[in-house]
Backbone:
């Protein structure tokens, strides 16, 4: 750890239910800063925690940086408390997927991630509001949301559990009739899923939105008409354009998507039930995240 930020005050919002249950995340943080001049406070999320409780703690501590310790759900909680403020948010990835950490290049090793919290730089990113839910990463209806539901129903975690959920979803999920308008184009088609993409890839590393940027003035709508796993893998490996008969991408700052029947719906990895309407709107410069320094800035 360098000495460039020795007078920092850091607040860690810890989801102790994340990660390895045999290792105390709070103890790891305390040990890391044991010989440092940096002041730290730790708030362990209770089983039932309201946004108001977290906000009250943030206001009381008056930290220079607030750090979400857990998965994308923990980051979402902290971001909801600090939406449209200048307070930088750090990420210690300790969840099952850690999609936003991977998106930003934050190390999955806790000590390396703590170095980023201390020495990284703040960066403003946009977010989206999807059906009145803050979305930092990715939201979707259809196939993947159904997969998230099945994953949540299983007692274990990890890639094997994810693979089992994906296999079940592949054979049991049915396509839906979707409709939305982008610019002057009216879309009405059957689809396996529709993604509101703030980020570029899922926590598994699956690149669903290769052209996405976190700091521009649009989000992407990814329309997957078929279960086009091989199509996405082809793009991922070769960078060739999508086959528009299977996958299309649109850019917008707001959109309303409707389905003929209610479809499975998720935001940032949290399954939210079924809906037949998704309304999304861009929130520009909404969140201040701490990201690793690039070589020419060190």
Residues:
């Amino acid at each position: 750890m360098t000495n460039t930020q020795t007078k920092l005050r850091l607040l860690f919002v810890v989801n102790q239910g994340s990660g390895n249950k045999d290792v105390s995340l709070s103890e790891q943080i305390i040990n890391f800063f044991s010989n440092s001049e940096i002041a730290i406070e730790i708030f362990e999320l209770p089983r039932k925690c309201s946004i108001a409780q977290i906000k009250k703690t943030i206001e009381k501590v008056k930290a220079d940086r607030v750090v979400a310790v857990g998965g994308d759900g923990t980051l979402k909680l902290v971001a909801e408390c600090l939406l449209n403020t200048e307070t930088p948010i750090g990420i210690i990835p300790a969840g099952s997927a850690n999609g936003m950490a991977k998106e930003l290049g934050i190390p999955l090793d806790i000590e390396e991630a703590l170095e980023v919290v201390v020495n990284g730089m703040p960066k403003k990113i946009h977010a989206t509001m999807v059906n009145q839910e803050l979305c930092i990463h990715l939201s979707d209806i259809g196939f993947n949301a159904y997969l998230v539901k099945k994953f949540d129903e299983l007692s274990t975690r990890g890639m094997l559990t994810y693979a089992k959920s994906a296999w079940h979803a592949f054979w049991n999920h049915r396509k839906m009739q979707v409709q939305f308008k982008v610019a002057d184009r009216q879309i009405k088609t059957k689809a396996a899923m529709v993604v509101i993409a703030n980020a570029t890839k899922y926590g598994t590393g699956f690149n669903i939105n290769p052209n996405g940027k976190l700091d521009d003035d649009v989000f992407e709508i990814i329309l997957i008409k078929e279960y086009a796993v091989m199509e996405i893998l082809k793009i991922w490996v070769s960078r060739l354009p999508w086959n528009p008969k299977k996958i299309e991408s649109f850019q917008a700052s707001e959109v309303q998507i409707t389905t003929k029947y209610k479809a499975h719906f998720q935001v940032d990895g949290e399954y939210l039930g079924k809906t037949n309407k998704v309304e999304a709107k861009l929130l520009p410069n909404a969140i201040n995240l701490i990201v690793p320094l690039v070589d020419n800035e060190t």
The mean pLDDT is 85. The two ends are 14 Å apart (CA to CA). Helices lie at 25-32, 51-61, 72-81, 99-104, 110-119, 143-153, 159-172, 229-238.
